[in-house]
């Protein structure tokens, strides 16, 4: 089946058709179907592999990446991470331009969230989604969860259609904390993860998940180097905003290098949607 251009899918949100009815021509307006919050049907594995391999060169992309995040470590795991990111982008193809807001789950969701934002910018230009980084984690303090709840309640009218992004799901318990808060706030959203544990049986809280690849371990994306944020599981302090990850005191040189690599990935992955 021919892969439909994502740009053609969204450039014309409304079209007019001439419909004959009892001898009178009437104009019927049709609109793009809202998919956010609806069931996601995962692409056939063979078809997905064919599209990715015919459109981009994973080995070539891997050679272009220069930051330590992608250079240090097992090249095979780096390749798997790139493949997982590419598959996630492909799975989001029909709804990626429908999101008004991106919510990043903790520090681990920061890089894939920024990557998705860059891809949307290349496809859409102006009127970009807003992006927030929310603290998650299995051991999140009650006070922090309460701050996130208040933050969501206060801003939910601004969110519109939302994409909740994380990097890795093992049991679903951690991301489930945020999902429960989003559901309680009546926010329309999808959940996306770069990778999931192989053979996982998703808990109810995860619901319908859009993911890139199943792996036995997390990808390389959750490393302190280049993230710019860190998990803060220390004692809660009253004067800190714990609804968002805390700043990571790392050299901005490494952070800039990672962001440049994200730009390379976005430039390549956007080809999957054209």
Account of the 3D structure:
The chain is of the alpha/beta class and 274 residues long. The chain has a single domain (40-273), classed as Rossmann fold (3-Layer(aba) Sandwich). Helices cover 39% and strands 20% of the residues. The chain is built from nine helices and nine strands. The protein has helices spanning 6-11, 45-55, 58-64, 68-71, 75-91, 110-124, 142-159, 173-184, 252-269; strands at residues 14-21, 24-31, 101-105, 130-134, 162-169, 189-197, 209-215, 229-230, 246-247. Strands 4-3-5-6-7 form a five-stranded parallel beta sheet, with helices on both faces. The longest helix has 18 residues, at 142-159. The chain starts with 5 loop residues before the first helix and ends in a 5-residue tail after the last helix. 36% of the residues are buried. Residues 1-31, 229-240 and 246-250 have low confidence and may be disordered.
Brief overview, please?
The protein is of the alpha/beta class. The chain contains nine helices and nine strands. It has one domain (40-273): Rossmann fold (3-Layer(aba) Sandwich), CATH 3.40.50.
Fraction in beta strands: 15-25%
Which class do the helix and strand fractions yield? alpha/beta
**What's the arrangement of strands in the largest beta sheet?**
4-3-5-6-7
Number of domains: 1
Helix content: 25-40%
Radius of gyration based on Cα positions: 20 Å
- Give me the CATH fold name: Rossmann fold
How would you characterize the largest beta sheet?
A: 5 strands, parallel
* Low-confidence region ranges: 1-31, 229-240, 246-250
Count of DSSP strands? 9
Count the DSSP helices. 9
CATH class term: Alpha Beta
State the shape.
globular
Cα separation of the termini: 15 Å
What is the CATH architecture term?
A: 3-Layer(aba) Sandwich
């Amino acid at each position: 089946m021919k892969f439909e251009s994502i740009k053609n899918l969204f450039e014309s949100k409304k079209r007019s058709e001439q419909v004959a009815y009892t001898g009178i021509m009437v104009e019927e307006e049709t609109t793009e179907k809202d998919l956010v919050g609806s069931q996601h049907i995962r692409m056939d594995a063979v078809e997905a592999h064919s599209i990715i391999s015919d459109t981009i060169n994973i080995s070539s992309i891997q050679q272009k990446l220069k930051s330590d995040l992608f250079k240090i470590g097992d090249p095979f795991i780096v390749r798997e991470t790139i493949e997982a990111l590419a598959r996630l982008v492909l799975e989001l193809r029909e709804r990626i331009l429908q999101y008004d807001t991106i919510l990043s789950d903790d520090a681990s969701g920061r890089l894939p969230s920024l990557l998705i934002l860059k891809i949307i910018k290349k496809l859409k230009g102006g009127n970009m989604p807003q992006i927030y980084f929310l603290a998650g984690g299995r051991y999140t303090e009650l006070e922090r969860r309460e701050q996130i709840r208040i933050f969501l309640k206060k801003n939910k009218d601004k969110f519109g259609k939302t994409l909740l992004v994380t990097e890795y799901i093992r049991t679903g318990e951690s991301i489930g904390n945020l999902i429960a808060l989003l559901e309680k706030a009546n926010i329309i959203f999808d959940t996306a993860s770069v990778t999931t544990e192989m053979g996982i049986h998703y808990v109810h809280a995860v619901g319908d998940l859009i993911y890139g690849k199943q792996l036995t371990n997390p990808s390389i994306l959750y490393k302190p180097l280049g993230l710019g944020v860190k998990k803060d599981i220390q004692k809660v302090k009253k004067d800190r905003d714990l609804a968002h990850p805390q700043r990571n005191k790392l050299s901005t040189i490494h952070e800039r290098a990672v962001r440049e690599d994200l730009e390379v990935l976005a430039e390549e992955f956007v080809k999957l949607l054209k």
